[in-house]
Amino acid sequence: MKGLPLEETRQYIQELRKLFHHAPSQFQAWENALDTIQKRLQENMVRLAIIGTIKSGKSSLSNALLKQDLLKRGAGVLTSIITRVRYGSSPGASIRFKSWPTIDQEVQNAYVILAQAVHHDLDRSPSLNKPEDRQFLKEFLEKHSIEFSEQYENLNQERILLESFLQGYSAIHGYLKDAESNLFLKEEELQRHQEFVSQKEYAVYMQDIQLDLPLDILSRLEISDCQGSDSPNPHHFAMVQSYLAQCSLVIYVISSRTGLRQADLVLLQTLKQLGLLQHTLFVINLDFTEHESLEDAQRVLKQQEIDLRQWVGQPRIFGVSALYQLFSQSSSPRSPRVESQLQLWRMVTPLIEYHQKQWAQLEDILQEYAIQHAEEVIQKSEASHWYYLIQKIWEFTESAHQANHEDTQQLQKLQETMQKRNQELQEAHQSLQAALNGAYKQLRQTVGYDVNLLFEKDSSFIVSQLHQFIQNYQLPSGFSASEDNLSMQTIKFYKNLQHQLLIFVTEELNAPLLDHLKSLQNKYLEHLQKICAPAFNLLPQTATSHSEVHDVSPLLPPQDEISLQFPEVSFVMFSSTLDCHAREKLKSFYLLGKRLFQKKLSVFQTQKDKNAEQDPTLMDQQFWEELLVQLKQDASHSLEFDILNYRENIKYLYLCKGLELLIESIIKQFTLQMESALIDCDNLYQNLQDAQQKKEDFLPRLNELREILQDLPTQTGFPALLRLESDKSTLP
Ligand SMILES: Nc1nc2c(ncn2[C@@H]2O[C@H](COP(=O)(O)OP(=O)(O)OP(=O)(O)O)[C@@H](O)[C@H]2O)c(=O)[nH]1
Ligand SMILES: [Mg+2]
Q: What pTM did the predictor assign?
């Protein structure tokens, strides 16, 4: 990572290792500590989400920032996933596949909807991994292909999904496991990731994708190209929302052709609810062919500014052409088509100069934001971890140097001090573990209480809004009371209700829920921070006993708090939970509908016979209204079950799981710091004895290394390390 000289530190440890053959565990401990710092810096990246509606130019803009045409442009709606791009020392892609249980759930949900429409075997739960079930699905789709394409157009989504799963099976199944799994593509295969994104028979199997590139811009930023927020599938938007919840910076792409549209309002609302509007840069993607003059483009930009002002006081707006930037600055060779497009633009458009200025500003502001954030993070914790490590290495080299000069009495004193310190640290480790165990037990209860409150029937905004939604739900038009189409009507009802509910939940509830969970996480983090602080503060203190023996540089003052981050636990959105158990739900809707239908139909018939003069359409309407009341009751009941299920998942699979991982990582961090602080006395002396025999080589090299280490901290603004007093005489 840039910022701290971590690579130099690693090389330094390796050099030192060559000199001391007998202390492998000591060096391993330092290397582990370095790895952790590196990993934590990586996790503390500025996450930049590139969002906007479909085809606004998000992928073109991401590519322009990366200076290469790498991410699939015009990826299409069906295959929407998020592509994360991170720093990596060599280029590569990691494709994450869904787990078998997730795939089977999707297959079964799609199957049951199709099967119900054509009165097929509803009790079957086909599993894609079984050859006989694949054959069964294949025959099922073939048998009803005409019905599906001619009569049941509204079931297209399910049909295409099943077909894609079947088509992609032979190529993909080797990668799949019971848990999510990864496929890594190395440098020369990198472009292949586009196949996975753009071909729906592969894309249906994918969870998400991460690219690693050795680019400067990524040293502080993780860039994510998100799918269009207005995809007809509400789950796509839910994925964007859950990614946004982890982001600290957003680029919002708006096409100059369309400006802000209805679909943008929902996205803006989400940004507002997640508190991200102040951290959003708006890019108006200028289509050069649309604007004849600079004035025209500026007029469009002005209008966008007026519209956006309703959302954010001073929107930061940039008018650029993502495609021009990409084509003109791409590091890869240009195709003849791209070359002629560029030439044409250069001849006809009056916007190039304006674009260039705006682009430069956009890049500057991104840099500035990333550096500022990185500094905040570094200052907050990692720099002090690194400095602490450096001081430990320094103490080791100084002790080795000293031991080489001093008499046995001094050596013994040094050894005793080190042993005492080792013991103190072991004790601190034990008490930290005990304190965290206790805290975890208590926090589990708090989580239970907090989450129950969030979903409590009478007080929760979530539950009350959901019930309100069901109450206000209206049947879609086109229902009629005849028994022969009951099955299709039930599906229609189920699909419509489910779809409306999904949209409602993603648009109205997901964002406030995420925001609420974030504040719960922060509350737990603060609590744990207080618990850990004493043990972590002990780390620098234990060293003071050593500085009493030798005048080494003063260590960092104790920190009031250590910086903790809630770990990345995969979060299931409420909207996804609603899609589970489609088979059971649909069946129960169907049975309920059938039962009511038969009962009502006979009542209806007798009433109709008795009141021959009453308007039949009115009675028909009355029948559906009564049926609707019953169906709503059933839907409410099933929703309550979903809420309960989701509530428990949030508690145990998300928050408690996160806390468990967090506590694990705190202990690990402490252990690592402790291990890097422990000086392996026995090995040190064995090393020194060894070195005595080849003194001529050893001492000069050790002195060289001490020189290098002494100044390493000054690169980051820390003071140089202080030499041992007694050393002065031995220096030339
Ligand atoms: N003419 C023209 N085409 C553009 C412009 N910007 C992007 N495109 C093209 O429009 C198509 C969609 O652009 P993308 O960058 O893929 O847009 P997106 O927002 O990522 O689209 P989705 O991911 O499908 O939502 C691609 O074929 C681009 O090459 C532009 O300013 N002018
Ligand atoms: Mg795209």
A: 0.80
